[in-house]
Amino acid sequence: MTGKLETDIEVKRSADQVPYRDALDLMDARNRAISAGEAGEQLWLLEHPPVYTAGTSAGDGELLDPRFEVVEAGRGGRYTYHGPGQRIGYVMLDLTKRGRDVRKFVHSVEGWVIDTLGDLGVESWRAEGRIGIWTRDVDGREAKIGAIGVRVRRWVTMHGFSVNLAPDLSHFGGIVPCGIDEFGVTSLERLGKPVSAEEWDTALLARADSFLDSLSK
User: Where in the chain does DSSP place strands (E)?
Assistant: First the structure.
């Protein structure tokens, strides 16, 4: 599958793992540059070394075992784990050009991930009252396969989504992922649908135009 974003949106793919704090600094700078009209919009696809990130609603009791660095992320949401085998998408768009509707933006990002997973043979969905992207695990129970966390500053978006391709799922045991402890976490690999980062990126970009169209409807 092939696909591309609009010609004025840069697609950046990092082959090497990017330390989370470095990514935050680069994302913050790009956000400010977009807001000032000094840079164009960007989709950044990458992977981090193991890290726990705390959103603005993270609770102290949700950090169970800080075996990795813990970083204040500045985004909405609670605790999330990022690490090898998980694909991250940082979406930096100017919503002044795209309807100024944060709720629609979040819904569209969720739909983008859900549609891409479907193209790769995994049915997934939103769950009322539960943040993230959900699917049916190998034991038949619902489990989380993707996380959504965004921040909007001066109508320019930051952060985005993560999808579990083949991470070490035991690393999620150090936190209560997104504050939800009654459900597990799964991955494409665990579900018997192994997908490389390159294959994920290709499938995601094939759905990019539909994602952008959804923001204008």
Answer: 10-13, 42-46, 51-54, 70-72, 79-82, 86-92, 125-127, 130-136, 142-153, 156-164, 184-185
Burial class (CB in 10 A: 0-12, 13-18, 19+), 123: exposed
Could you give the CA distance from residue 154 to residue 163 in angstroms, rounded to a whole number? Answer: 27
Considering the domain boundaries, does residue 3 fall inside one?
no
- The CB-side HSE value for 63 (13 A sphere, CA atoms) comes to 18
**pTM score, whole prediction:** 0.93
Specify whether 178 is catalytic: yes
Per the prediction, the chain carries an average pLDDT of 92
- Return the sign of the alpha-carbon dihedral for residues 163, 168, 2, 27: positive
- Shortest CA distance to 34 belongs to which of 9, 11, 12? 9
pLDDT digits (tens, 9 = 90+) for 139-163: 999 999 999 999 999 999 999 999 9
The catalytic position among 106, 178, 197, 203 is: 178
Q: Does the residue 191 lie in any domain?
A: yes
The CATH number of whichever domain residue 118 belongs to comes to 3.30.930.10
